[in-house]
Design goal:
The chain is an alpha+beta fold. The protein is built from six helices and 17 strands. Strands 1, 7, 8, 9, 10, 11, 12 and 17 form an eight-stranded antiparallel beta sheet that branches. Strands 2, 3, 4, 5, 6, 13 and 16 form a seven-stranded mixed beta sheet that branches. The two termini are 31 Å apart.
Length: 311
C-alpha cells in the first residue's frame, strides 16, 4: 500500500439489493446494541460528571506480527474489519515509475478487532491496525523487525517503505471507547474539491452485547482551524470483513525527480457501503475534535437513531 495514502472503493456488486434485504434485521439489532452500550456507559461514569471529564485520545493497538489475516483459526483476533488494497488508477498515473508501483502493491493496510464473550455479554476488547504482505500465498501481518523471520525478504527500499508505513500508523488514534463502542480517527490524504488534501477518516465501530456482532461506519472530516467539520452529508455502513480496492489519485505536480511527496497519492473516496444521511442531532457530535463521556454517549445514541431512520 502507498504509505502517503494508507490512512484512511469497494465494488458492492449487482446483488447489493438482496444483501440489503438480508441485512435489515442485523442493522436493527445493531441499533439495539448501541442503545444498550450507552446505558452501560452512562451508568459507569454518572451523568452529573460527564460534561467535565474529557476523554484523552490514545494510539491504536497494533496487530501482532505473524497474524494470518484471512485465517480466523490462527489469527488471535476475532474479526477482520477492513483490508485495503491500493490501486494507482486515477490522475497522472503515467508519472509513477515501476518501483513505486511495486512497493505500492507490496503492503496492505489491515484493521481488525477482538470481541470477547464475558459473563455480562460480548465486549469489544480492542481494535488494532497493521500492514500485511503476501508470504507463501498468505496475507500475513509484518513489521520491519519481523519481516525477515516471517519469510518476507525486503531490500533497503522495501524496509524503508515498511518503516515509513509503520510511522504513519502512530497517527491513528482511539478518540473514545467503552465496552461496546469505539471511535477511531485515521489521518488520510483524500482527493477533495480537485486537490489532494490532508483530512481524517473517522470510524465508529461497535459490537452487540447480545450476540457479539460487529458493525462499522465511516465518515470524512475536513480540518477547520483547530477542529473539524463534516466534509460530506452522509456516512457509510461498511460490509463485514470488507476488502476494499482503494482507488488512489496521482497528483503529478507533487513529484520531484520522480520522487513523490507526502501528498502525491490520495484516496478517491472513503470505504463504501450502505449510505446514511447525517441527522441534525448526529451532526452536532460527529465532527467533535475530542469527546467527553456525555458527548460520546450522544454520538452512540444519535448514530443509532440515524441508522434506524434508513438511508
Amino acid at each position: 500500500m502507498i504509505p502517503t495514502a494508507l490512512l484512511s472503493k469497494s465494488a458492492i456488486g449487482s446483488a447489493w439489493f438482496c444483501e440489503l434485504r438480508r441485512s435489515r434485521p442485523a442493522i436493527a439489532s445493531m441499533s439495539f446494541g448501541l442503545v444498550i452500550a450507552t446505558i452501560f456507559f452512562s451508568a459507569a461514569y454518572g451523568v452529573e460528571n460527564a460534561a467535565s471529564k474529557q476523554i484523552e485520545p490514545t494510539r491504536i493497538d497494533r496487530i501482532p506480527p505473524g497474524t494470518v489475516v484471512f485465517d480466523p483459526s490462527t489469527r488471535g483476533l476475532s474479526d477482520l474489519i477492513l483490508f485495503i488494497k491500493g490501486k494507482l488508477e486515477a490522475g497522472d498515473t503515467d508519472v509513477v515509475n515501476d518501483t513505486t508501483r511495486f512497493y505500492g502493491d507490496l503492503f496492505n493496510l489491515v484493521y481488525m478487532a477482538n470481541v470477547k464473550k464475558t459473563d455480562n455479554g460480548f465486549k469489544l476488547d480492542t481494535v488494532a491496525v497493521g500492514f500485511s504482505s503476501k508470504v507463501e500465498g498468505r496475507d500475513i501481518v509484518v513489521n520491519s523487525e519481523t519481516a525477515r523471520d516471517l519469510g518476507l525478504s525486503l531490500n533497503l527500499i522495501g524496509r524503508s517503505v515498511l518503516s515509513g508505513n509503520e510511522r504513519a500508523l502512530q497517527d491513528i488514534n482511539v478518540m473514545a471507547k467503552n465496552d461496546q463502542c469505539v471511535v477511531i480517527d485515521a489521518p488520510a490524504i483524500v482527493r477533495f474539491n480537485g486537490r489532494n488534501e490532508r483530512m481524517v477518516v473517522r470510524f465508529f465501530i461497535w459490537t452487540s452485547a447480545a450476540d457479539g456482532q460487529l458493525g462499522t461506519t465511516a465518515w470524512l472530516l475536513a480540518r477547520s482551524g483547530n477542529g473539524f467539520t463534516l466534509a460530506e452529508n452522509t456516512f457509510n455502513f461498511l460490509p463485514p470483513e470488507m476488502v476494499e480496492e482503494r482507488v488512489l489519485h496521482v497528483d503529478g505536480s507533487q513529484f520531484t525527480l520522480g520522487i513523490p511527496s507526502a501528498t502525491a497519492f490520495a484516496m478517491v473516496s472513503i470505504p463504501q457501503g450502505r449510505s446514511f444521511k447525517f441527522t441534525a442531532r448526529l451532526r452536532r457530535v460527529a465532527a467533535l475534535e475530542t469527546f467527553t463521556p456525555q458527548t460520546f454517549n450522544e454520538l452512540i445514541l444519535s448514530a443509532a437513531e440515524a441508522m434506524g431512520q434508513g438511508g
